User: Fold this.
Amino acid sequence: QVQLVESGGGLMQAGGSLRLSCAASGRTLSISLMGWFRQAPGKEREFVAQINWSGSSTYYADSVKGRFTISRDNNKLTVYLQMNSLKPEDTANYYCAGASGGPYIYWGQGTQVTVSS
Assistant:
């Protein structure tokens, strides 16, 4: 099993920055892909960004491309999401997720990000 714990959410004004962290523990060697998803009230959960465990490949949703950066620190078993130029529409609960060669099966509890206009 893998445990994922997010941190770093909070309240920020539009145009500001936040960095989310996701600490992984347990059978982390089984993880091949880590991602961030978000879910706003009344909306479905949507993909934000992902990174392979070696860090050689990243992929972003069009809505965050150029503003958000996903990275990882394998020594700390942590994945980060640097969010710049935040917009009110970025307000959501952000979830970290892990996959082991298939769909995302490991999920964190989420961290709330609120962006005020």
